[in-house]
Amino acid sequence: MDSSVSTGKPAFRRILLKLSGEGFCRPGEGGISVEEVSRIARQVSRVASLGVEIAVVVGGGNILRGAQLSRGSDVIKEATAHYMGMTATVINGLALQDALEHQGCETRLLTTIRMDEIAEPFIRRRALSHLAKGRIVVLATGTGSPFVTTDTAAALRGKELGVEVLMKATRVDGVYSADPEKNPHAILYESLTYDQVLRDELKVMDMTAIGMCMENRLPILVFNFKKDGNIERAVCGEPLGTWVAAKSRPRAGAAADA
């Protein structure tokens, strides 16, 4: 294994990884980059090899953002635009599924909008069965309803599937006091409470998703997945990114069966 990859024991048995659409393309571009998708698949497959059960919620912003499409126009209705955005997540889900299977992983693509020829319908018990059998579950089409973000879908699925942490994969190192790409003096937070995020309106996830995680005491880890090996390090409890929860993060090397 690459020396840059953690060799510790996983700190979590089951995780939900939230991937935005931007993770599927090169910075500043759109569409799908096979290189970027392959990079994600390699990291996720290494985590799966540790025995961790993985559900992945995918966004679709690299292809189409429903909210932006309908903004300032009455040609395409807002609800229609949101449904279009949901179908965009399926394209990303299919790409990730094939990339994971290329790494030797067994997967299932589940959607909340019926697409029987290419995916299974999301049924909670079926998803749990797949996870228990070691399959990586890729979840597309969000909640299946318009006006709901894929961040909120991730919080909802995280609770439904009983994951121990919601890992929000980003292209920056965590949650900052300001946009680090615009403000070089922005401060990186090591940990935050849900209340701090809501009070200061920090850009972690949308407020509905944060509120749902707070209500269900589901911790969130915001981290930079563009650095190779960071998904494994996060799963093994190494101190990276920003931990959002009601209590401190697990220690590095802490076994999941502690």
From TrEMBL:
Compartments where located: Cytoplasm
Binding site for UMP: G60, T143, G144, S145, P146, F147, V148, T149, T150
One Pfam family it belongs to: AA_kinase
Organism of provenance: Paludisphaera mucosa
Quaternary structure (record): Homohexamer.
Pathway: Pyrimidine metabolism; CTP biosynthesis via de novo pathway; UDP from UMP (UMPK route): step 1/1
InterPro entries: AceGlu_kinase-like_sf, Asp/Glu/Uridylate_kinase, Uridylate_kinase, Uridylate_kinase_bac
Role of this protein: Catalyzes the reversible phosphorylation of UMP to UDP.
EC number: 2.7.4.22
Superkingdom of this protein's organism: Bacteria
Protein name: Uridylate kinase
Catalysed transformations (reactions): UMP + ATP = UDP + ADP
Record keywords, A-Z: ATP-binding, Cytoplasm, Kinase, Nucleotide-binding, Pyrimidine biosynthesis, Transferase
Any GO molecular function: UMP kinase activity
Main localization (coarse): cytoplasm
